Amino acid sequence: MSIQMAVAALPTLRERRRAAATREIVETAERHITAHGPHALSLRAVARTLQMTVQALYHYFPNRDALVTALITKAYDDLAEAVQEAVDTAPHEADPPRLVVAAEGYRRWAIAHPERFQLLYGAPLWHYKAPVDGPTTQAMQRMSAVFQQEMFAGFTTDQLAAIDAPALAPSVRALLDHSAGEPGHLPAPATALMLSAWGHMHGLVVLEVFGHTPFLAGHQDDFFRTSMRHMLQDIHRRVPSP
């Protein structure tokens, strides 16, 4: 690539300024959510904090939904990055297993960012509707891909197709079989097992983040790790030998 082509490929000053302003708006909105909760998000409050008019903010986000979509996408990306970093920095020893490490990374991020976690998994924001197959869906898929990799690493497609999973309703089985034909998708039994495991892990995290486990009296770490170990053992028992 010539110097002229390289220079032409760089963002213009106007594009860099717009990117910086967009980033500052998102970060300010995140702080607003942290302080007041996701349901209190207000474009007017964000603009006031930045000493902007709401009309000026509309140059970057045409409406509240566009800003919410950016916030949800970034939250999913940050959560996925935390999970991936937990796996990448874990010791090479087999204990704890990498899926357990990934689950603990997920839990740590949720505990450290309860309001942003609530934005992802709490009560839906009033009148907000995520764009179909938009950036929020893609960000969520990136995160779930990390868990899929750690849950089923080393198993063949034939093994995953023969998993001993609970019986599915015919309509659900047809839906999962149809998805299995798409690139990157698991066989139906593996998808069903992964969804069940996700519900187990995520449910424990939600209970803790939303304050429903005080009876564990500071033993949440041990309880969660033990639960994840048992979950993984059950998953691997259901996968037939090659």
Descriptive overview:
This protein has 2 domains: 8-62, Orthogonal Bundle (Arc Repressor Mutant, subunit A), CATH 1.10.10; 65-237, Tetracycline Repressor, domain 2. The protein has 242 residues and is mainly α. It is globular and about 60 Å long. It has helices spanning 3-9, 13-36, 43-49, 54-57, 64-88, 98-112, 114-121, 135-152, 157-161, 170-180, 188-209, 220-237. Helix 2 packs across helix 7 and helix 5 (64-88) crosses helix 6. The chain contains 12 helices and no strands.
List the helices and strands and how they pair.
Layout: H1 3-9, H2 13-36, H3 43-49, H4 54-57, H5 64-88, H6 98-112, H7 114-121, H8 135-152, H9 157-161, H10 170-180, H11 188-209, H12 220-237
Tally of separate helices: 12
* Portion of residues within helices: 55-70%
Question: What value does the Rg take, in angstroms?
Answer: 21 Å
User: Which CATH first-tier class of the largest domain would you pick?
Assistant: Mainly Alpha
- What does the main sheet amount to? none
pLDDT < 50 stretches = none
CATH fold naming of the largest domain:
Tetracycline Repressor, domain 2
State mean pLDDT (0 to 100 scale): 90
Could you say what the CATH architecture of the largest domain is?
Answer: Orthogonal Bundle
> Structural class, from secondary structure content?
mainly alpha
CATH superfamily of the largest domain: Tetracycline Repressor, domain 2
Q: What best-fitting shape do the alpha-carbon axes yield?
A: globular
Overall tally of structural domains: 2
Strand content: under 5%
Count of extended strands: 0
Please report the distance between the alpha carbons of the first and last residues.
49 Å
* SSE order, one letter for each helix or strand: HHHHHHHHHHHH
